[in-house]
Amino acid sequence: MKTLHIVNKSPDQARFGRCLAALEASDQLLLTENAVIALADAGIVLPSENYALAADLEARGLAGRPTTTVIDYPGMVRLTADADRIICW
Amino acid sequence: MSVLVIIDQAPYGSWRGRESLDMALSLAAFDQPASLLFTGPGVNWLRAGQEPAGLSQKAVERNVSAAPIFGIEELLVDRQSLAKYQLEPSALIAGTSTVDYTPELLANYYHVVCL
Amino acid sequence: MHSQTAFTLVITGAPYSTQAPQTALAFAKAALAQGYSIDRVFLYGDGVHLSSALAAPPSDETNWPKAWAEFLQGNDIPAVACIASALRRGILNNEEQARYQRNASNIIEPFELLGLGEWVESIASTSKTLYFHGDH
């Protein structure tokens, strides 16, 4: 079962950690809203298959981060449509 | 396969746990299998001896105790969070099962809700 | 197109306290543009504030209840505010205004006040349910 985890919380929030602890190796992670600042957080290790919303990155001055796959809202729709299960943290 | 509703907020200081419990009870009322998982500060929902009269709120303890009667399948509690909040399984309200919070646990549910 | 996939969107974050209604609207517009359908939008918890017709933000800011209402009406999408969440937070329709003898009703069309059964129906259906929460 391929699970897409969508997290919108800042990385310092306990919920962010609960999301990471729920990830299986085959799962996907999508960072939205304040969660995108995790890409600038030196203390956070994200799974290699992670995505981040372009509008949220750009709004926070984080466009062009190399450690994520940047997607737009249509890309978010495709990810969710393809997932077997979606958990919104 | 059933729905898992996660409560990770302490009781009384926020309404989110109550509204999570309402979701689980609604599922059960419509014959949809539902379980509750208490983790993080949420394990404090299960501490015996709550007396919230001074807050003019109803005790959540009673709502949770009654949940199995209304059809909630499991009251799960995260072992690590119990240790963190110094809760012995014997100090919890009756009817809970202690589990480890892992991807394997969550894989048992086709839908996971975390308000 | 992808007529087989339908989404249910549950919004639990309030406008002007969280980004949830904005992310959800951007997602919803993108989903329709790609040929997916949206079975239902369900407001729960603080999310019910999105159904207030009385929001009066400054003119240079988006009126999120109005933007959502126009989107829902324009696309014939059923929209529900959870009645238990809404009544507690002062979101009323005419019927509830009369029942509770309040001096105004304030729900914006096309939102309806209905129970959690609407959400349960989505869970039990083949619809994919996404939640748009606040940041706390």
Keywords:
heterotrimer; A: alpha/beta; Hypothetical Protein Ychn, Chain: A; five-stranded parallel sheet; 3 helices; 22% strand; C: 136 residues; alpha/beta; 5 helices; globular
Protein architecture, described:
The complex is a heterotrimer of chains A (89), B (115) and C (136). By secondary structure, chain A is α/β, with parallel strands linked by helices. Chain A has one domain (3-88): DsrEFH-like (Hypothetical Protein Ychn, Chain: A), CATH 3.40.1260.10. Chain A contains three helices and five strands; from the N terminus they run E-H-E-E-H-E-H-E. Chain B is of the alpha/beta class. Chain B contains four helices and five strands; from the N terminus they run E-H-E-H-E-H-E-H-E. Chain B has a five-stranded parallel beta sheet with strand order 4-3-2-1-5. In chain B, strand 3, helix 3 and strand 4 form a beta-alpha-beta unit. The model of chain C has no long low-confidence stretch (mean pLDDT 96). The chains are: A alpha/beta (89), B alpha/beta (115), C alpha/beta (136). Chains in contact: A-B, A-C, B-C. Chains A and C meet through helix 3 of A and helix 1 and strand 5 of C.
State the name of the first-level CATH class of chain A.
Answer: Alpha Beta
SS-based class of chain B? alpha/beta
Principal-axes shape call of chain B: globular
CATH structural fold name of chain A: Hypothetical Protein Ychn, Chain: A
Reported CATH architecture of chain A: 3-Layer(aba) Sandwich
Question: What separation lies between the terminal Cα atoms of chain B?
Answer: 20 Å
- What order do the helices and strands of chain A follow? EHEEHEHE
Oligomer: heterotrimer
Task: Tell me the layout of helices and strands.
The complex is a heterotrimer of chains A (89), B (115) and C (136).
Chain A: E1 3-7, H1 14-21, E2 28-31, E3 50-53, H2 54-59, E4 69-71, H3 73-82, E5 85-88
Chain B: E1 2-7, H1 16-29, E2 34-38, H2 60-66, E3 74-78, H3 79-84, E4 96-99, H4 103-106, E5 109-113
Parallel strand pairs in B: 1-2, 1-5, 2-3, 3-4
Chain C: E1 6-11, H1 20-33, E2 37-43, H2 64-74, E3 79-82, H3 83-88, H4 94-100, E4 112-114, H5 117-124, E5 128-132
Parallel strand pairs in C: 1-2, 1-5, 2-3, 3-4
Summarize this entry quickly:
The complex is a heterotrimer of chains A (89), B (115) and C (136). With 89 residues, chain A is an alpha/beta fold.
